[in-house]
Write a structure and sequence with these properties.
four-stranded mixed beta sheet; N-terminal domain of TfIIb; 1 helix; alpha+beta
């Protein structure tokens, strides 16, 4: 399966990050890889995001986070 996480799945993943737990894929349960998303220089505001990717089923999605990795 490939594609992106739904809005509800992204909310649950953000909640897992906020709780300090490692997020797992909503589809297959595998621990997700995490990559920082750099904001483009042309953006006047700073939004901190991480991109969560499933190494097994290849689904992914970006989640907003606050300083310290919390959504």
């Amino acid at each position: 399966m490939t594609g992106s996480f739904t809005a509800e799945e992204r909310r649950r993943l953000a909640a897992a990050l906020a709780a300090g737990t490692e997020p797992t894929c909503p589809s297959c349960g595998v621990q997700l890889d995490r990559r920082a998303v750099r904001p483009p220089a042309s953006v006047s505001y700073v939004r901190s995001r991480v991109w969560l990717l499933c190494p097994d089923c290849r689904r992914s999605g970006a989640v907003d986070v606050r300083e310290g990795g919390r959504p």
